[in-house]
Structure formats: structure tokens, C-alpha cells
Amino acid sequence: MRTEDVLAAVATGLWRWDNASGTVSLDGEAARLLGLPAEPAVLPEAAVRSRFHPVDWNEVNGIVSLAVAEGTLAEARLRIMDVDGRVLRTVRSRSKPVESRSSDGRVDYELIGTIQEIAEPQPGTTAAHTPITGDWRRSREAFLLDAGRALAEARSTAEVLRVAASLSMPGFSPDGLAVFGVAGDRLSVIGHHGHDAGDEGPFTEMLLETDYPAAEVVRTGRAIYLASPEDYKRRFPATWPLAQRFDRVSWAFLPLIVAGRTMGAWMAAFKRPASFSPDERSVLTTVARMLAQALQRAGVAESERELTTGLQRSMMPQLGPEIPGMQIAARYVPTGGGLQVGGDWYDMIPLPSGRFALVIGDVQGHDVRAAGLMGQLRIAVRAYASEGHRPDAVLSRASRFLAGLGASQDSPGDGDPDAQSPRFATCLYVECDPRTGMLEVARAGHPDPAVRMTDGTVLMRPTAGGLPLGIVPDTDYPTTRFTLEPGETMMLCTDGLIETGGHDLDTGWARLRAVLEADVPASGGHAPGHLETLADLLVQAVHGPSSHHTTGPLADRREDDIAVVLLCREGGLCGCGTPLEHPARPARRTMLTVAQAEPERIKGARQQIRELLHDWADEEQVDSVVLMVSEMVTNVLVHTDGDAVLVAEAVGELGGRRLRVEVADASDELPHKRHPGEMASSGRGVLLMEMLADAWGVDPRGEGKSIWFELREQSKRPDA
């Protein structure tokens, strides 16, 4: 009896589907089952395809592709349609894909198999879930959507493994999972779930030549399904004892493939038997592909984080050795997105003179190129400072250096125009004498420093400045000198600390001033490390608590890089040194130089006085002081050829303080009282001091003179 007769007797036909030629060969029974004349035929692919239900044809495509990839049988249930679109019958197809190579080297395949009619369930009976019922398909699609979304959101290898362990597959869920990676010629366990700690030991550092399913999957790139312990023992007898002790009865090993490269394997083990139907294999294969892509993304992200973290650490130096009488704290916070590197930096540089320099700066942009320029500029500034140059000379040389870098990169050629354009940088350079507290400041387009006095008053110290570095190669940077008194704290920062959150310079400073003034040490002082706490408070006030750094309505508020440096000269009330047992209220003192070439700084002098007297009891007295200071400084600029040096000091308890203001200049000509007319534009300075000050005078000096006045607080505030 012929095989064809036996198959026809059980309503089973034979077919051969040649994908390369686009033809399908049918025997008589197969043709009959497809609704064609019951005789052997060779038909075009389109003629046979038109007999299948469109939904089932889409299923067949996925099943055949899966079978080709895995080298397994392609099994499917298909509804056969007549020319009018009615369902004639349902058939089961079981085919084996066989690869073939055309003359031009193209790889294709043939499907060789059987087609058999199956009975449809009768009304009132329960039918098993099949692809054409739609229930399994809908639950599978929902599961794959959820799995894909969860894996896409995983940002690290550990998160990807946690997501993989939590997947609950429709109809069957593995009890044990393992992800294998490849390192050279060895297999390693990246992560596992459903096993005890240490169970991965025998499978770690396993050679790829080992007779183990995961190793074979990596070698061949094809999935392996072991439906029973007998299948495992028969196919992999050497490693069966390793798997036997886990009491699993079915295993699926699938390759993790990205861009055609097998990067590892995924194992799903079951304590209940799994038949691994085509739909189940399709789900496992799809999950393996998503898992491979998620691991690839996580690996790239972790590599980038490691790179940027190392770059950031190498470019952000540690603060130097302890300085007697001084405390220093610093923070750098990169922007919230991208590669987490940028152009902000700070540095502390020991100088040959025994002093030290504090530098803070901001290169335009917060990308990789800004970080690279920042690294070069920081090294250049450190080199110039270490040679012993003064602050103005350090910034002048740094500006020439950065301008030269921009000129060398601004050359024609293919590339990003933004990457070719020159960039500038702001910088603040402070040379400090730790013995006397004297500071020499040179500023290149950077925000001014702020000083918190011992009683908690915060003043912005106006300093002379020049253009940002790199704009004009040869630029002068004037130097400003002032003294950091014992117990005072100076803050240097980049504009990211000021303007983040929609603030401008004024409102940003007000926000920071509130933080600094709220942290005034009590009479008992603070514990060591108080300056570090203050640095954290400043950063947190700008971009919020860590709970804001998530998705949702409270998005990450870091809009720009942040760098901040705090310098405290130890004293009884600063919180850094030894607290005094009975501290007296400290003097409040400020000093400011107004140069002949900068008359606009008179406005800064008036603002400085108002900030110094922010809690003075009588507002009218404050207005009087501001008027006298403006008149005294203006007289120096108008009647002499030198600069005006303003020194103001308030001492005593609140409500009974004494204010002394001195304005010194290099001229020996003493002021004298005049009697200006109603229309006169000058000559009222001495008259104003006689009328408004409690005392005033002129002190001649070796070179020049000092004009001063004193004023006592007239009333005590109710809450003082």
C-alpha cells in the first residue's frame, strides 16, 4: 500500500511550498481539502493563499518565521474559504521548513508537510483555546504590550532582570529564570530568579563548548525546547545532573539577539509540564527579543554613566589639604538630562606664596564639548596660578588661551556648526591669605561673591570685572580687595544656582540669601561639618528634594549645571570653629572701592549700605546714610583723580548700634564748608553731614585723607 493512499484514507494531504519560486505542489487530497479539484496540482502561491482566512494567514506568517528561526515544525490551524468567502472546513497544517540556497547565493526555504481536516466543536461543548478563537491572541497581545512597556522603561541591567522575573505569561509562567551572557569563550550568569543564592555557581565561567543548552543556543543562535526531563537527559546527558536538582520538568532556552549578534541566552524553567505550542514559542521568542534589546540599552546606558561619572570625577578635583583657620566646602551638580557632564567647575590651588586660590567658572553649554573645554581651561588656570601670577594676569592669560582654542576649532569643514563655533566662559578667581583673611578678586563676567557676616547678614560683594574669557584675547581684569573677617562665610557660585526655576539674578539671590540667613549659627555654634550641611541646603533649595527627580508633575528642576564653593574664616560665631561661651554681637563691616573709571558703581555702594542696614530701626536714618554716602563718594570722583574706598561698620546690640562710615581718597585737599545757592549743583556735602550725622570729621593720612561720620540708632525695634 502506498503512503499516499494511507494518508488519503485518513483525510491527510501532502504539500510542498517553495518560497523561492512562489509555487505550491499539492497531492489530490490536499487539493480537495483546499476546495480545489481532487487531483495533484502545482499552483501559484496566490491561488493557494486566497483559500485561507486572512486572519489565519497572518498567523501562519509568524509561525513559519518562528519555525525557520528555531529549526522546528510549523504547526497551525487554518480555516479554508470558498470563492464566496464562506468557511468550508478547518484544517491542521504541520510543516518542516527546509533551507535552500539559490544560484545567486540568496537563502530561502521550502515548507514540506501535511494538511489534515479537523472537526469543529459542536454547540454546547467547550473548545480548547486555539489561535483562531481569539482569546489566547488577545491575552497574548496584552501581555506583550505590558512586557514591552516595562522593559522599555528599565534603565539598568538590574531593573531589566527584575522586570523579567515579574513577567506573568498568559496560560503558563516559568518558575525559574536565568540570563546568560558571553565573555570571550565563556558563558556567565548575569542574573537569575527562582533560585537560591549560590545556585549559579556551576554555570558561571562555563566554556561555550560545554554540552549545555544555553551554550548551544549561543553557539547556534537557535532556541532549544525541552518539554520533559527525558528530553533534557537524552539531548544533554553531561549537564543533566546540574539541572536535575532544581526539580523542573520543562525548559526553554532562547537566544538573546541584537542586530544579528547573539549576546547571550535566556532560560525559562517550569515545574509543570509545558508542551511549547507554536503560540507559546512565539510568546517566548518575542519576550527574548525584547529582553535582549532592553539589556543592550541598559548596557549602553550603564557604560555612558560610567564614562561620564569617571569624566566628571577626573575633572572635578578634590579640595586640597586643610588650611589653618579656614573651612572650605564645594558642590557640583550636573544638569538633569543628557550625559550628566557640563561646563561648570571649581578648583582650589595652593600658591607658591603660601596663599591659596579659589576658582569657579562656567563654560558656555552643558554638553560633552563644554566639559572638554572646561577640563582644558581648568588645567590652564591652575598652571598660570601655580607660576605665581597675580589674579588679573591669570585671567588675562586664560582668556587668551580659550580664544586660541576657539580659533583653532573654528575651521571650515564638514560637521556640526555648533561644534565648530567658539565658546566663552565666565570665571571668578579669588586669591586668599589665610593668615589675614585678605581676598583679591578678579572677575570675568561671573556673578559676584556673597558674604554672610557673623550676625547672619548676607551682602553681595560688588567686584570689578571684565569680559568673559575667550571673547577678546587681550583683556584686562581689574582686581578688588576686601577682607573676610573671622566668622564670615563667602559663597561663590555659578548662575545655575541663582537662575534655576525661572528666577532672574535678583530673585535668585533673594532665594539664596534666605537660605544663608536662616542658617545663622546659634550662640552655641554648630558641630564640625556645618559648612557641608549648608552647601547641601543651598543646592536643595534650588532644585528641590530628591522626590522631585522623577517623572510626573514634579519633574526634575535642574535646568543648568550648578557649582558652589563656600569659604569660612573660622571664628566664634561661624559654626566652624570653637564656639564662645558668652559671645558678644559681632561687628558688621563692609568695604568697597569705587574707581574713577567706574562711576556707575556708586549705585552698588548705595545698595551695599542698604543691605548692611537691612534691620536698622529707623528707615529715615537709613535714607540719610545712603544720601551721605552717595554725596561723599561722588565728591571723591569729581574733585580728585583717585579712587574712593568706602568702609562701613556697625557695632553694638540691636536698637542701640553705632554706625561709622569712612570714605578715603589719595588727595590731600581737605573739604570745607560752602554756602551754595538754591540753584547750585554742588557744595552741600559738608552741610548734609552737619545736619544728619551725630558726628563727622576729616582724618589726614600719610597719602590722602579719610572723611568719616557716625550715627547712632535712635529707636529700638519692638521685637529686638
Descriptive notes:
With 720 residues, the protein is of the alpha+beta class. Helix content is 33%, strand content 27%. It contains 19 helices and 28 strands. The strands form 5 sheets. Strands 3-2-1-6-5-4 form a 6-stranded antiparallel beta sheet, with helices on both faces. It has a 6-stranded antiparallel beta sheet with strand order 9-8-7-12-11-10, with helices on both faces. A hairpin with a 5-residue loop joins strand 14 (344-350) and strand 15. Helix 4 (54-70) packs across helix 10 (278-315). It is elongated.
Percent in strands: 25-35%
Rg on CA atoms, Å: 41 Å
Spatial order of the strands in the main sheet? 3-2-1-6-5-4
Large-scale geometry? elongated
Record field, number of beta strands: 28
Question: Notable features of this structure?
Answer:
720 residues, six-stranded antiparallel β-sheet, alpha+beta, 27% strand, elongated, 19 helices, 28 strands
What's a quick, concise take on this entry?
It contains 19 helices and 28 strands. With 720 residues, the chain is α+β, with helices and mostly antiparallel strands. Helix 4 packs across helix 10 (278-315), helix 5 runs parallel beside helix 10 and helix 17 (601-612) packs antiparallel against helix 18.
Describe the protein's topology.
Blueprint: H1 3-9, E1 12-18, E2 23-26, H2 28-33, E3 41-44, H3 45-49, H4 54-70, E4 74-81, E5 87-101, E6 107-118, H5 135-153, H6 157-166, E7 176-183, E8 186-193, E9 206-207, H7 213-220, E10 224-226, H8 229-235, H9 240-244, E11 250-258, E12 261-270, H10 278-315, E13 326-333, E14 344-350, E15 356-363, H11 368-386, H12 391-409, H13 417-420, E16 425-432, E17 438-444, E18 450-452, E19 458-460, E20 465-466, E21 479-483, E22 489-493, H14 495-499, H15 505-518, H16 530-543, E23 562-569, E24 588-594, H17 601-612, H18 619-639, E25 644-651, E26 658-665, H19 685-692, E27 695-700, E28 705-712
Parallel strand pairs: 17-20
Antiparallel strand pairs: 1-2, 1-6, 2-3, 4-5, 5-6, 7-8, 7-12, 8-9, 10-11, 11-12, 13-23, 14-15, 15-16, 16-17, 17-21, 18-19, 18-22, 22-23, 24-25, 25-26, 26-28, 27-28
